[in-house]
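Ticket reopened. Same input as before:
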Amino acid sequence: MHVIICAGGPEEEVAERDVLLSFDDAVFIGADHGTIYLLDKGIIPTMAVGDFDSLTIEEWQRVEREVKTIERHEPEKDETDTELAIIRALEMKPQKITVTGATGGRLDHYESNLHLVYRLQKEAPNCSIRLMNKTNEVRFILPGTSRLPYDQRYKYMSFFAFGRDVPDVTLKGVAYETHSELVQMGTTRFTSNEVISASATVSFSEGALLMIRSND
Amino acid sequence: MHVIICAGGPEEEVAERDVLLSFDDAVFIGADHGTIYLLDKGIIPTMAVGDFDSLTIEEWQRVEREVKTIERHEPEKDETDTELAIIRALEMKPQKITVTGATGGRLDHYESNLHLVYRLQKEAPNCSIRLMNKTNEVRFILPGTSRLPYDQRYKYMSFFAFGRDVPDVTLKGVAYETHSELVQMGTTRFTSNEVISASATVSFSEGALLMIRSND
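Engineering reply: fixed in the latest deploy. New output:
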């Protein structure tokens, strides 16, 4: 199962309808105002989660009318709407979670979502969690060997240390291969690589890499 | 002196003309395509730096005609245009560097700029370096006590650990004060605070905090 969450970031940060509908075995969750973005695209989410504070009365009535399962929270909660939605998604034991509408506008929200995904990805290593907008895909790679399939939507692949330096990083199947190199905090050397085979791999044994795939 | 660098991120990521012209003692540097954004705003930079690969012939002729000092690099250089521009700016020994046009579009470019500023801010602790777009300001706070003046442009102030957990963080003069708290990688607890006095302060003794000020 692949759970797709649409969060309430500015609408231009939401991935295209065709992309959202292209994934197999997909279940949709609307996080707060993201529920409206999904309904506007003709996608009825299985569940809507949030405080729905930012919705007009008309929008709220539409959510009540169209979405079967609604989990409405108090505005004064500890978790963000996106966090609650990812936690609900993880309970469904999916192989993959994609969060869209979570990258732009307020950069504190984007950074907060990065830290949230970092924490939850470590807690649920068997489920791949990623953020996605129209031209970027963002996720964390944990220790081990990870396969990175060629994806025609993204020309570039970049890696950053997150939380600490990451030693012994080996990259294969990309334009600039590395062998046992140190990815340090503050370095920009591991950006704009390109996958040149059917599937690249990245291997390392400790820490976590932030991987960003992007297009112009 | 305050050096303002305009980088080549998408034009909608460049701060407003009025804001750019509101700073005292400002000197402008155009980084690659950012030079055109400045000229389009009627601001003639003191210097233009970059490979200028993305410029049309007409745009390049305009740069040659209007900008006195141009530093043209080979496209196959190790540094990004933004990096070269910040290094030139630091040579002018300013109190402050503001980089605009460096936050959006390709998220790998934004992340790369974050790491770049993190590294250069540690190398030049006496110069405050920040990224700025229309609704966000991003910078790193180093150990010690830093004054954070009230700024009407930004309602929210958020802090994130960058590179490692940051212990003993004390925040004063904000809506949610903290006393000697741990800001951990993966936590989103220190977001959306608000400066409620003329000037807030943040104090800690090791590590670095990523501070993001933002508006809706």
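The interface with chain B takes residues 80, 83, 103-109, 111-112, 115-116, 118-119, 122, 133, 135-136, 138, 156, 158, 160-164, 185-188, 191-192, 210, 212, 214-216 of chain A (CB under 8 Å). Chain A has a mean pLDDT of 96. Please confirm and we'll close it.
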